[in-house]
Amino acid sequence: MNKSRILRLASLLNKSPLDMIVLNPGPTMVYITGLQFHLMERPTLFILSSQGKAAMILPELEILKIKATLPDMECFTYNDNPGIWGTVIKTAFTGYQLSSPRIGIEPNRMRYLELNFIQQSVQAPQFSSVEPLISSMRIQKDQTEIKMMHTAVDIAQQALKNTLPLIKIGMSEKSIAAELTINMLRAGSDPELPFPPIVSSGPNSANPHAEPSDRKIQAGDTVVIDWGASHKGYFSDLTRTIAIGTLDEELFTIYEAVKHANHAGRGTAKPGIPAGDVDRSGRKVIVEAGYGHQFTHRIGHGLGLEAHEEPYMFSENEMILIPGMTFTIEPGIYLPGKGGVRIEDDVVITEDGCESLSTMDRDLITLSGT
Ligand code: CO
């Protein structure tokens, strides 16, 4: 699978003005090569020319990973003496055009450390962003990728199901987040979660990006739980809002509005329409319920090897949806001082609509908390 992506990338490079691409560790390196490295002080680089010539520069101690995944890859290794790194990197670049090559890099990933080594290895390199080209590949998930995301969703859902019975009045947001994290690992999540779970209760739930605090949950609280698991590099990102005891009437009203907005978004998403339509359809429901100003974010974002990636689901986005795109649908209403509600699902665009990978109940879950 990964070899075919390397070939596809080379053919796209060939049709572009770029002579080569240089990647450092991150989601795109995983996507193209299947190789997962931590971004550390040791420079690790994947080079691919528009002619299809590929090489890896990496620490000697990582070589087994390559042997297992891409045994034919040409490798340039170095030991822990930084004094030789520059020479090894220069040798690796010898097989490529060395005079003013146009090099594609990821602006959000490439660091001064690696750029500096590249500048010392080739003459007058011209760097440009390879982001649009990479995004055009990564934005459309194949069946294998969708299966991995499905597993990441299943793991997360199982973890919340196992956590709900533990939630009691007097328990802090932090301890609920801790239980949920343990349950995700037990349910089979890879150790590196896409993000630490958000558990926000009562007035705290009116902050869409709250961090779990020491606040103890009380009767009458909405508790927003935004969490996700990871499976072979692919992420899930879900939100459910639960009620502790009886909610005040307005919180119940906003719950219903958010639930309908989530439903409208999922009902609208299909191939051939602009991404913005999904946001607008959900937003319309919330505006009509009288809470337009309390829905303060876009309806969702792309999801895959990153917790946030293309396509971004904001009203003005004219990008046309195509089968295989995966993203979240997560409308919310936030009432400062009172509480908030968000319901988030992970969906994939199919041939004629969209399928939700997450299936957990969207009706209000009420816990007695006793
Ligand atoms: Co999200």
Parts with pLDDT < 50 across at least 5 consecutive residues: none
Give the helix tally.
Answer: 10
Q: Which structural category fits the helices and strands?
A: alpha+beta
Shape: elongated
The end-to-end distance, rounded to whole angstroms, is: 51 Å
Q: How much helicity do the residues have?
A: 25-40%
How much of the sequence lies in strands comes to: 15-25%
Please compute the radius of gyration using only Cα atoms: 23 Å
* Order of SSEs: HEHEEHEHEHEHHHEEEEEHHEEEEEEEE
Strand order in space, largest sheet:
4-3-2-1-5-6
Quick recap:
This protein has helices at 2-14, 27-33, 63-69, 85-93, 112-121, 131-138, 143-163, 173-186, 249-268, 275-288, and strands at residues 20-23, 45-49, 54-59, 74-78, 102-105, 126-129, 198-201, 222-227, 230-231, 234-235, 238-244, 300-302, 309-313, 326-329, 332-335, 339-342, 345-349, 354-356, 365-367. With 370 residues, it is α+β, with helices and mostly antiparallel strands. It binds cobalt (II) ion.
SSE map:
Layout: H1 2-14, E1 20-23, H2 27-33, E2 45-49, E3 54-59, H3 63-69, E4 74-78, H4 85-93, E5 102-105, H5 112-121, E6 126-129, H6 131-138, H7 143-163, H8 173-186, E7 198-201, E8 222-227, E9 230-231, E10 234-235, E11 238-244, H9 249-268, H10 275-288, E12 300-302, E13 309-313, E14 326-329, E15 332-335, E16 339-342, E17 345-349, E18 354-356, E19 365-367
Parallel strand pairs: 1-5, 3-4, 5-6, 11-19
Antiparallel strand pairs: 1-2, 2-3, 7-8, 8-11, 9-10, 12-13, 14-17, 15-16, 17-18
Helix pairs in contact: 4-5, 7-8, 9-10
The structure holds cobalt (II) ion (CO).
Cobalt (II) ion (CO) binds next to loops.
